[in-house]
């Protein structure tokens, strides 16, 4: 990608241009980032090492944790660095890299949430054949395919955005390099870019949401056929966390991208972007751990192993 623009660097204005709020924003996002980083890392370790979580659902949950770590790490550290150094400058190619490494996990996560909904449908609707349909090989191949599709989506958006010329105005009214604020700065025609954004996000957003919605319609129908109240409760508890995350994530992404440019309000979009780019990835491990008995039990076993290993004295 060649830089054909007059602009060689951008200035990221951040969530607020009020200097009095910078300390509050810095502290808040630092806390959220640390919680998100530690929480997702713990979920990934538990899903990878605990034998009680050796199922496809937790395999996908571990991959979701990796995507969440990538999402918050693509945006928050640079924003925090801007507040510390008081320099809000990011290079042209640095901005392109940030956009790519942000869009990759976001697009991949939209696909993954749809796959996780289908996984729950098979687990509840066809439990006897679940291990055959959602085998370990299928899980690995699915994750590989989602990674490739997410990368292609991110690469397409990044190329289309940074092939545009940027002339004079280089102030990005956002807290990271996002597509819509960048299109506002472009001094060339952005109509085709808007079509690409709308088309890609319609496929990733609306289509995945419809697939997820249909999966849960069948899940609810199956749960209602269960006679015992305890059976219904256990079946629904395996889906409750996923429903919460899907609602938050899809809602924010669809609201941000699938709209005409004329209806954009960058001040409001910054808040919505913070929801799916920072808050939701940080909340995912909390939502899954608080509402999931198996994760809580795995965490207790993990802590006990740490305590035992720490208490053991080496032989001399």
Give an account of the 3D structure.
- The protein has 316 residues and is mostly helical.
- The protein has one domain: Rhodopsin 7-helix transmembrane proteins (Rhopdopsin 7-helix transmembrane proteins, Up-down Bundle).
- Helices cover 76% and strands 3% of the residues.
- It has 10 helices and 3 strands; from the N terminus they run βααβαααβααααα.
- The protein has helices at 19-49, 56-85, 92-125, 130-133, 136-162, 179-185, 191-224, 229-257, 266-290, 293-311; strands spanning 9-12, 89-91, 171-172.
- A 3-stranded mixed sheet has the order 2-1-3.
- The longest helix is centred in the middle third of the chain and has 34 residues, at 92-125.
- It is globular.
Q: Give, in order, the helices and strands.
A: EHHEHHHEHHHHH
- Fourth-tier CATH superfamily name: Rhodopsin 7-helix transmembrane proteins
Radius of gyration over C-alpha positions, nearest whole angstrom: 22 Å
Quote the CATH topology: Rhopdopsin 7-helix transmembrane proteins
The description of the largest β-sheet is: 3 strands, mixed
The CATH architecture: Up-down Bundle
- Given the structure, what is the number of helices? 10
Distance between the termini: 60 Å
Secondary-structure-derived class: mainly alpha
Count of strand segments: 3
Class, according to the CATH hierarchy?
Mainly Alpha
Give the total of domains.
1
Low-pLDDT regions: none
Q: Portion of residues in helices?
A: over 70%
Shape type: globular
Q: What order do the strands of the largest sheet run in, or round the barrel if closed?
A: 2-1-3
Mean pLDDT: 84
Percent of residues in β-strands: under 5%
